[in-house]
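Handout, section 4.2: multi-component inputs.
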Amino acid sequence: MTALFYIVASLKSNQQAFSIEINKTILSHQTSLVDSSIIACAVLCISDYKCCSASYNEDSKICLLGNQCSPVMRDSANFKTLTKQPRDVAYGKSATQSSVFENLPINIASRAVDGDLTTWMHTAKEYMPFWIVDLEKIYKIKRIEIFNRNKGYRISGERLHDLDITVGPTENEMQLCAHYVGPSKLKDHLVFECLHEDVRFVKLMINSTEVLNVVEVKVYAW
Ligand SMILES: [Ca+2]
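Output:
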């Protein structure tokens, strides 16, 4: 039976949705232990960033934790398998940028992670302008979505080009995740598949003298 519904478990404020498959268990796991309930098993998986799937047996109370986000499964009565669903982990996190256009509060870095598509971050025109978000802990990320500037002159949508998106566990260990040649257009919604483990920082930087000005950045992670 395929996933028909979701559960949401939380560890402190860390809400995490899982898909559930009934009478299935994962083929490989890294951890096996006995736990009181399927929710407790889910919370264990949330607390381990490498865990992406968990199988729980209602009879034996065995909880299996696995690292695969698209796990191979086999039929097994009384087991339920939970698989983490990616979610935006950039929302509300701490962000900085190379400069703030006219030093106005309406242009600051946090406006790109406020969940509001009517607000933007906006640097001055400068060489290699950048924006960086600190996800505050290590995640296994899946994709990055950028919502470009969505109002104004046509040319202001075309500022987004020659963009490097880099990711890493520290600001000194960044790797290229995607390069966007562009130019973009007003209202563009750009999606970059970017499978990387050990990511705490995500950086956008334009490789020329330009303005960096986008309304929102979402980082989907497990
Ligand atoms: Ca915004």
